[in-house]
Amino acid sequence: MFLCKMSKSLTILMSLLLLLPSISLAEPHNEGPKVCMECHEAEYDVWKETKHFAAYKDVHKKPKAKEILAAIGGAKSMKKSPVCSTCHYTLVKKKADKPAKAKAGPSCESCHGPSSDWKAVHNEYGSGAKADTETAEHKQQRYSDAKDAGMIWSFMHYELAENCTSCHGLSRDDVEPEILAKLVANGHPANENFEYIAYSQGSVRHRFYPPDVTVNAEMDTIQLSRTYVIGQAAILVSASNGLARATDDKYKLFQQNRFDAAKLALSAITDIPEIKKLLDEPTSENGKKLAEAIKDVDLSKSVAKMLPEKSKYK
To answer: What is the value of pTM for the model shown?
Structure first.
């Protein structure tokens, strides 16, 4: 009898194990900028002065907004449109099983990834330790674990640029190419001259690093030069992806112009093999390899003259 019961139990257990691959785990979700503010008040204060912050209250009031929304269909409100909310809002969930609602304009998680899966790891400094007493070994492991959980850290330069250009370049993979074409055709801003430095180092800059975490540090020329190259790499890949999916001549021309401009800028730098590899194969993976290859390289001699003037910063 005992063996019979055990056999039945094992059968049930094996059946459950076979079902595990079909069980879908909850997708990571945004928890909202106020969660980040608890530890990053200075960064939060910077964000509150940006167009990203203001967008929540005014982007839907722009004259073209309703016209564009009507053209793509699917919703009567930008905040409820899956297409618009993808870039224009931070969709927040109170709990994993609750519906997501637009609670802010583009914010922390828009760039650094939905925090539900990585926040706990990001905030754990080791047994009894705080941020200023965490060991170097634990910090390295924490960085790696949070990255594996979906966080895009500030040192992940290509990933940040890629995230930024996917929206500003109208080339998100999670939006159908026909819809992207309708956006451009109906007057959605399509800025062929978007340049990563001008946007990332303008009003949205929030570089509060030790030893003085009260200073919003500016990049020096060497840092700017690397960031410029990484930004152009992200634009090249973004435009290449857009071209590959294009179904409309006007949208295709927009992406072609972006691609050509980024290719021209990168082609001027001839001593980095990873740039040639990226130009030959414009993929996200090659973009990351380029960013890694130049992380300690001074490119300022060949790049400084291409950097935008501060007066052009957004």
So the answer is: 0.90
